[in-house]
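User: Hi! I'm working on a homework problem where we have to compare a predicted structure to a textbook description. Could you give me the structure for the chain below?
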Amino acid sequence: MEFTDTLKKNHEFRRLYSKGKSAASATLAVYCRKTGRDFNRIGYTVSKKIGNAVTRNRIRRRLREIYRLHEGEVQRGYDVVIVARHRAAEADYHRLERDLARAFSSLSLWKEEGM
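Assistant: Happy to help. Predicted structure tokens:
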């Protein structure tokens, strides 16, 4: 990903959960916070309650790919955490893509026209 780094530390995730804006759908929740940097940082969370390792990794790979394909359309200077919900295990790629686009729209993360 060209304009994005990853969030890895627990305190970074917790800061977004407590102080960031959020949007949710049936399959995922998105938290974001403006940082003022010239790049984004993104993190993915998929709980063990959702399924086994294969299921969790499949969801995580799909979310990473969706973000990677639309990275150029996202405003820069934000920390973003995407939290998969239980229904993400049954959702197909296009449903995840649609729900992520709606969440980004409600948080005003698209540059101008968006997806």
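For your comparison, note the following. The helical segments are 10-19, 53-69, 93-106. The mean pLDDT is 94. Good luck with the assignment!
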